[in-house]
Amino acid sequence: MSTIVILHIIYLWLVCAYQTSAARICVYWDVGYVDINRVGYGIVRGIGANGALPIPPVTMTVGDTLALTVHNSLNVTTSIHAHGLFQKGTSFMDGPAPVTQCGIPPGDQFTYEYVVDQAGTFWLHGHDHHQNSDGLRAPLVIRDKGRPPVAYDEEMLFSLEDWYYQTFAERASITLDPKQPFPPAHGYGFGLINGINGNLTKPIHFQPGRTYRLRLINMSATMWYQFTLPGHIMRVVEIDGEYTEPLEVDGVDIAPAQRYSVLVTAHSTNSFNYHFNATMHASFIPPTPGLSPRIFIGDIIYQQGAPFIQPGSYDDSFRWANDINLHALDQEP
User: Fold this and answer.
1) Residues in Cβ contact with 102 at an 8 Å cutoff, skipping those fewer than 6 apart
2) Distance (Å) of CA 64 to CA 22, 61, 101
3) Is the pTM of this model over 0.85?
4) 92-136, pLDDT tens digit by residue?
5) Cα–chain center distance at 114
6) How far is CA 250 from CA 35, 160, 230, 236, 301, in A?
7) How far apart are CA 24 and CA 86, in angstroms?
């Protein structure tokens, strides 16, 4: 048997092994209206999936096939975009209506199906009639096939959102009315962390000496988020689905649709607890006490009952992540 034939057999075996180890991830979303009070403003008509908000994260591994079936129970068209995926060879599955597809008609359904070949932090969201703004959005986490290029012990997901006490259509009507002041009252919005009121965000738990990967996704329609863990150093290792050379920072300022992964190594003792800070802001909205920016504080628990270290104020030495200082880990063209 010739060497070429042997190599060809080995190649086919490797391809077959890769394909058989991949999974088909089937997700069903019945997209419809959800009347919900998420932050205490009162009932708002949102858009969710399977009668619920928030929509649960979708988790996959590189090489898996996503089969996302979307049934439209709205009274207008809808579509779903996987934000950050290149869709090489599958642009017809990209989702923006009416660019790469017609919107899914009311009462109809469509299945988005494609192999994911990128590892990183992404998200799925409505891409028709601004439905993302009304809640049609969910994290999409794609893990490496095998060991990732950065080492950590555990990972945590932070999905950050803005939420309003009016639907997008109602807000747009007011915003575009020349008789109304700017910013309109609804423009300040409120913050959600992992789908719930940012003021009620659940604590995270650190164990001494362990390294955590925090996946940060800003799924907001309008607002930015500054994310910090006072008393800890963060190392940026991924931005928008691309691994980077580690960059030490004190905080990240995350634009709408942007994603970061940061590594945080816990302190060596559990003598103290700490806080994390997620501040929602927008440069085009004037600072207004209690409304803009909005500051949400969560707990980092090392040990129940331990005293908390109170965060200090930011000064000129504080290091915000700056895109221009980030370098791709894989620098091959």
Assistant:
1) 77
2) 5, 6, 23
3) yes
4) 999 999 999 999 999 999 999 999 999 999 999 999 999 999 999
5) 20
6) 39, 18, 8, 10, 19
7) 19
Report the pLDDT value the prediction gives residue 184, as an integer from 0 to 100. Answer: 73
Encode pLDDT of 170-199 as tens digits: 988 988 888 888 767 666 789 999 999 999
Sheet holding 65-72, edge to edge: 44-49, 24-36, 65-72, 109-115
| Residue 250: other Cβ atoms inside 10 A | 16
- Give pLDDT < 70 ranges for the chain: 1-20, 183, 185-187, 313
Contact 123, 138 (CB under 8 A): yes
> Do 130 and 175 form a contact (C-beta atoms < 8 A)?
no
- 110: number of CA atoms within 13 Å, CB side? 18
